[in-house]
Amino acid sequence: MLIKDLRDKFGFKVLAGEDVLDREINGLYCCDLLSWVMSHAKDGDAWITVQTHMNIVAIASLLNLACVIVPESIDVDEDTIVKANEEEVPILSTDIDSFKIFTKFYEAGMR
Amino acid sequence: MDEKEKNTGIKLEYEIIKDDFSRAGEASSNIKRVLRQLGIDSSVIRKTAIATYEAEINVVIHSEGGKMVVNIEPDKIEITAKDNGPGIKDIDQAMQKGFSTASQKVRELGFGAGMGLPNMKRSCDEFYIESEFGKGTTVKMIFKL
Ligand SMILES: Nc1ncnc2c1ncn2[C@@H]1O[C@H](COP(=O)(O)OP(=O)(O)OP(=O)(O)O)[C@@H](O)[C@H]1O
Ligand SMILES: [Mg+2]
C-alpha cells in the first residue's frame, strides 16, 4: 500500500508531505505515548496518534515511519505542518476513529 | 570520509534548552543525518536515533538544560548527554520501566510513560548514568560499529 492510497482510496486529507506520497506503507501502529512509540513502532509504519505538536514529526522522521494519521479530524498545529513539510513527513487527516482506520487497512489487504 | 577523518574521529556538539519543546528532537535529527551521510549501518542509526531522542527529551523536560556530545570513531559511536541539574535522587527507581515524575501538562503531550531511560539502555551496547542530586545528570552510551 502506498501513502497516496490513503488519499485516493480512503479519502483521507493530506495536510503535509504532498511530494512524498509515493512511499510504501508496511504496517499500521497506534499509540499516543511517545517513548512507547519510540520503542515499538517499526520502519515504514503509518502511525495513528492524537498528538499533534511538533514532536511527532521528529519521531516519525527518526524512526522512518511512513506517515502520521490524525484521526477524528483533530486540529493539527500549524507549526507541526510546516515542520512536517520541511522534514518530508506526510501527515494525513480523517474524520473516522482509530478502529475504523484499522478496519480500512485490513479490508485493503494489510495483515 | 577520508582516512584522516577516520583516524581522528568526528565530534558533534549540541546545546539542549530547557522546556524548548518546539526544538526538541532537532539535535537527534541532525545526528541521524550526519550518521547517514557517513554511511553508518541503518540498524545502528535506528538505535542511535531512539537513544539520542530519549536523552534529548529528558534534558528538555526534566533538567535545567545541557548538551549532547557525539564522538564518532572507527569502531564505535559514543554519545553523552550532560545537564545542569537538578539531578536524579534515586537512579534505580528512575531506570524502572513506567517510573516518571513528568508533570500532568507534559503527560498530556504524550511524554511521561517512564520508558525513556529503559529505551536508551536497551538501544546501546554500553550504558552509564551518573547523577548528583542538586547538580546534574550525565548519561553516556556507546554503540559498537
Ligand atoms: N536528565 C534528567 N534530569 C533529571 N531527572 C531525570 C532526567 N532524566 C530522567 N529523569 C528522571 O527519571 C525519570 C524516568 O525517566 P524516563 O526517561 O525513563 O521517563 P520519562 O521521561 O518520565 O517518560 P518518557 O521518557 O517515557 O516520556 C523521569 O521521570 C525523571 O524523574
Ligand atoms: Mg524520558
Overview of this structure, please?
The complex is a heterodimer of chains A (111) and B (145). With 111 residues, chain A is an alpha/beta fold. Helices cover 37% and strands 17% of the residues of chain A. Chain A has one domain: Udp-n-acetylmuramoylalanyl-d-glutamate--2,6- Diaminopimelate Ligase, Chain: A, domain 1. Chain A contains five helices and five strands. A five-stranded mixed β-sheet of chain A has the order 1-5-4-3-2, with helices on both faces. In chain A, strand 4, helix 4 and strand 5 (91-93) form a beta-alpha-beta unit. In chain A, helix 3 runs parallel beside helix 4 (78-87). Chain B has helices at residues 3-8, 26-37, 42-62, 91-95, 104-108, 116-123; strands at residues 10-16, 66-72, 76-83, 126-132, 136-144. Chain B has one domain: Heat Shock Protein 90. In chain B, strands 1-2-3-5-4 form a five-stranded antiparallel β-sheet. In chain B, a hairpin with a 3-residue loop joins strand 2 (66-72) and strand 3. Chain B is α+β, with helices and mostly antiparallel strands and 145 residues long. The longest helix of chain B is centred in the middle third of the chain and has 21 residues, at 42-62. The two termini of chain B are 15 Å apart. Chain B has six helices and five strands, in the order H-E-H-H-E-E-H-H-H-E-E. In chain B, helix 2 (26-37) runs antiparallel to helix 3 (42-62). Chain A binds chain B through residues 32-36, 38-39, 43, 49, 51, 53-55, 57-59, 61-64, 79, 87, and chain B through 21-22, 24-26, 28-29, 32, 46, 49-50, 53-54, 57, 109-116, 118-119, 122. Bound molecules: adenosine-5'-triphosphate and magnesium ion. Adenosine-5'-triphosphate is lined by residues 54, 58-59, 61-63, 83, 88, 94, 99-102, 111-118, 137 of chain B. Residues 54, 58-59, 61-63, 83, 88, 94, 99-102, 111-118, 137 of chain B line the site of adenosine-5'-triphosphate.
